[in-house]
From TrEMBL:
Record's protein name: diacylglycerol O-acyltransferase
Keyword Acyltransferase (UniProt): yes
Pathway per the UniProt entry: Glycerolipid metabolism; triacylglycerol biosynthesis; Lipid metabolism
Keyword terms: Acyltransferase, Glycerol metabolism, Lipid biosynthesis, Lipid metabolism, Transferase
One Gene Ontology MF term: diacylglycerol O-acyltransferase activity
Length: 472
């Protein structure tokens, strides 16, 4: 008898339907570890801390226009955990090439949508290359899931892992389920009405504020729809579906914080400015024309409370379009423009608007989503993510995690994904791009470090009013 089918949420379904041969919707992580891990120990770790999330044992089932999660009756860890070795020196270049190749390869939709490759003898230790479909969860949730595999010391402590899904309930008759949904909706409506009445009693101006908020949301929706398409640059191209990846040597987080303090901004402002500077250097060094109005990147904005337990997965984030002033040469001026753009977005409802659009697209016909996706993807040149990691070094199956890296997928016609991850007093920066994009990922990584150094030197030298002098 087949197990219970669980309907997929509309937002998760939207991410499932974004999957294309050119852009598989996978979140990819590379965990570089100091020592090899015995395979039996890694298997036990996955069985106790990873597979306790029921979603990783479930495959996707489609019935008509409905999509469900269903336990895989033939689930076997061997179908998802593979052991391989790198060729030649088994160093960074070989690992980057493997990550690019696997990033280009779709997952098997007949099974639960994830894969882990254990990579022998990487830099004297090992590495894990992990791929998980975006419809399972968003980047922040999956980073937290992966961190639940780690410990603060080489010898793990026994602990309870949040994430066990409740035991499946017996399927209820359709009429009973409909009745329950109706009662739930009625109770929600009553509760909303009570809260509205209470808010009006406490603040007579509340209806006006509510109307103003609704107007602001409508304005942000209009701005999103009416935003012009991205300029034609080498960063936008017809995609080949073959990826290449690279990552930079880590930055010292203390240096990044010192730079942010000197400029009166945030760490995020500094890192976005360094990213902008890296792309400015790319345009300048390749002789390409600088887009006079900058470029936009799509930045995921977390809508899930960070202290919320990861008992359930799924996607709870929106996207904001951030303009990067890549046409500005001076690092201080660039920083202030980035800071102003970010502050404006923080006051907007763009993330909530895009989340609602994803929910709407996931409920509608496939052609509607694809047309809307094509429209939105023409308004960004890249996807950029920034995820906080643990402040102290952690251990996975007794082996120290030396460097973590991850990438989120790009959607539609976007061919570049950049990711920032803080870990143990460092900042990791990585990039994935389609091979049709006219840029070298390793060169862009060098530009990122150079751009940060230029901004840091200018900030600590006390040049808040610097003019538009060329950055070196």
């Amino acid at each position: 008898m087949p197990s219970q089918r669980i309907p997929m949420s509309a937002v998760d379904r939207a991410w499932l339907r974004m999957d294309t041969p050119e852009n598989p919707m996978m979140i990819c992580a590379v965990l570089m570890l100091a020592q090899p891990i015995p395979m039996p120990r890694l298997r036990r770790l996955l069985e106790t801390r990873f597979l306790c999330f029921r979603r990783f044992r479930q495959r996707i089932v489609e019935k008509g226009d409905r999509v469900y999660w269903q336990d895989d009756p033939h689930f076997n860890l061997d179908n998802h955990l593979h052991r391989i070795a790198l060729p030649g020196p088994a160093g960074k270049a070989e690992l980057q090439e493997l990550a690019g190749d696997l990033n280009s390869t779709a997952l098997d939709f007949r099974r639960p949508l994830w894969q882990i490759h254990y990579i022998d003898r990487y830099n004297g230790g090992c590495a894990l290359l992990i791929r998980i479909h975006h419809c399972i969860a968003d980047g922040i949730s999956l980073v937290r899931v992966l961190l639940s595999l780690t410990d603060k010391s080489p010898e793990p402590r026994l602990h309870r892992v949040a994430g066990h899904s409740p035991a499946p309930q017996t399927a209820r008759p359709m009429l009973q389920r409909l009745l329950h949904r109706t009662v739930d909706s009625l109770q929600t409506a009553i509760e909303q009405a009570r809260l509205l009445y209470q808010s009006v009693r406490e603040d007579p101006g509340y209806p006006l504020k509510l109307a103003t908020t609704a107007g602001d949301i409508a304005l942000d929706l209009a701005k999103l729809g009416l935003a012009p398409f991205e300029p034609s640059t080498g960063l936008k191209s017809s995609l080949s579906g073959r990826k290449q990846v690279a990552w930079a040597d880590p930055l010292d987080l203390a240096e990044v914080k010192a730079c942010a303090r000197a400029l009166g901004g945030t760490v995020n402002d500094v890192l976005l400015s360094a990213t902008t500077g890296a792309l400015h250097r790319h345009f300048r060094n390749t002789g390409a024309a600088l887009p006079t109005c900058g470029i936009r990147v799509a930045v995921p904005f977390n809508l899930r409370p960070l202290d919320q337990p990861i008992e359930t997965l799924g996607n709870q984030f929106g996207l904001v379009l951030v303009r990067l002033p890549v046409d500005v040469a001076d690092p201080i001026q660039c920083f202030h423009q980035v800071q102003e753009n970010m502050n404006r977005l923080k006051r907007s409802y763009q993330a909530q608007v895009t989340y609602s659009l994803l929910d709407l697209f996931g409920r509608g016909p496939d052609i509607l989503e694809r047309r809307a996706l094509a429209l939105l993807s023409n308004k960004a040149s890249a996807v950029l993510t920034n995820v906080p990691g643990p402040r102290q070094a952690v251990y996975l199956a007794g082996s120290k995690l030396v460097q973590p890296m991850f990438w989120v997928p790009q959607s539609g016609s976007i061919g570049i994904g950049m990711s920032i991850l803080s870990y143990a007093g460092t900042v990791q920066f990585g990039i994935t791009m389609d091979k049709a994009i006219q840029a070298d990922p390793n060169t862009v990584m060098k530009h990122f470090r150079d751009a940060f150094q230029a901004l840091s030197h200018a900030a600590l030298a006390g040049r808040p009013g610097a003019g538009a002098r060329q950055a070196g």
